[in-house]
Specification:
The chain is an alpha/beta fold. The protein folds into 2 domains: 176 residues, Rossmann fold; 166 residues, Rossmann fold (3-Layer(aba) Sandwich). Helices cover 43% and strands 17% of the residues. Helix 1 links the parallel strand 1 and strand 2. Helix 11 packs across helix 13. It is elongated.
Length: 357
């Protein structure tokens, strides 16, 4: 098959969705398919793709309605005889219309998160142009089915595969911060990720102990606000925001606990990566969390927007090394059995083949 991934994320952005695109594209390429990636020129995604030997077609898509890019993409799809286009939700207008004009290309939409804005517009476009939808969580599919938006056969759950960097060394946190346990979180510094509640939880936890350090990796528009909140709460030395790092592997391998206080998610790659490295996870009780964590077995689930519950759960794991190790061991086993790159790529391949029938 000839497969085209369209993922026109901002030039400097690189997170879980971008990791998924590279992992899926490379996996399909290694299975003998011709794979191309459409993304913003001179973006981090383009650089990472080219480093992995994935051919890139630069497309400077800034708005959903882009006649020039639609025609440019349609000609490329037709001239290269592309069989399947896989597009994230935001780029689907361009992808869908271009594939329709090309005439012979199947179009699959991938939703890492449920549709939250412009719902009726997306429903119309998907019903008009899409040959199917891929989601990474059963909870997302159930939401769409419950609302009656699409038929059950139209939506396929394909869990993310976790591509671990097992060659990296863990960060030497014991030497860097003697006597401290490291609590790690990863994500864009945005409202969605709930980091304001993590700062508040750190302030509560400080009242009973100071043997911890929270590190939040990621960039975003709330950075200054979060730093100010930490200073105001007196925890600026107990919670750090180092910004974007090229490789999160050493941080994950070196930490003791992983926390993700999100208000909504699809299925968090960062949480899966941490659990695959044997780290106990504390996640918000939002759709998708129960597909990763079984409370009392391999992690903890807390109510969203509840810093007190976050603080209590972090304190529980900080105080009990045996529980941390037990949860981490079972978390590792669960993720490495259910969320493999090989399984994800095989499922994608089979789904694309059915879409072409």
């Amino acid at each position: 098959m000839k497969i085209f991934f369209l993922h026109a994320i901002g030039k400097s952005k690189f997170g879980g969705g971008e990791k998924w695109v590279l992992s899926a594209a490379k996996g399909l390429q290694e299975r003998g398919h011709s794979v191309y990636l459409g993304c913003r020129p001179r973006s981090v995604l383009q650089i990472r793709a080219e480093e992995r030997g994935i051919p890139v077609r630069p497309l400077n898509i800034i708005s959903n309605i882009s006649p020039y890019n639609i025609m440019k993409l349609a000609l490329f799809l037709r001239n290269e005889n592309i069989d399947v286009v896989l597009s994230k939700n935001r780029d689907f207008t361009v992808a869908g219309i271009a594939a329709y004009l090309a005439g012979t290309t199947a179009v699959i939409a991938r939703h890492g998160l449920p549709i939250r804005r412009h719902i009726f517009k997306h429903k119309l476009l998907l019903n008009k142009f899409a040959d199917g939808i891929i989601v990474n969580a059963k909870s997302t599919k159930d939401l769409y089915i419950k609302k009656g938006w699409f038929s059950e056969k139209f939506i396929k759950v394909i869990y993310n595969g976790i591509d671990l960097d097992v060659t990296c060394d863990p960060m030497p946190f014991e030497k860097m911060y003697p006597g401290k346990k490291i609590i790690l979180s990863i994500g864009r510094l945005s409202h969605q990720k709930g980091f304001t509640y993590l700062v508040d939880a750190a302030a509560m936890l400080k009242n009973e102990r100071d043997d911890f350090l929270i590190i939040v990796l990621g960039e975003g528009k709330l950075r200054e606000s979060l730093l100010h909140r930490a200073r105001s709460a007196g925890v600026e030395k107990l919670i750090q925001f180092p910004g974007f790092v090229k490789s999160v592997g050493p941080y994950i391998r070196g930490c003791d606990i992983f926390v993700l206080p999100s208000l909504y998610e699809g299925l968090s790659n960062a949480a899966l990566e941490a659990m695959a490295c044997g780290k106990p996870a504390i996640l918000s009780d939002i759709p998708g969390s129960e597909e990763i964590v079984t409370p009392g077995l391999n992690g903890i689930i807390v109510p969203p927007c509840d810093p007190a519950a976050l603080a209590k759960s972090m304190s529980e794991l900080l105080s009990d090394e045996n529980k941390r190790l037990r949860y981490g061991e079972l978390a590792c086993r669960h993720v490495r059995e259910k969320f493999t790159v090989e399984g994800m790529v095989k499922n994608l391949e089979q789904y694309f083949e059915r879409a072409l029938l």
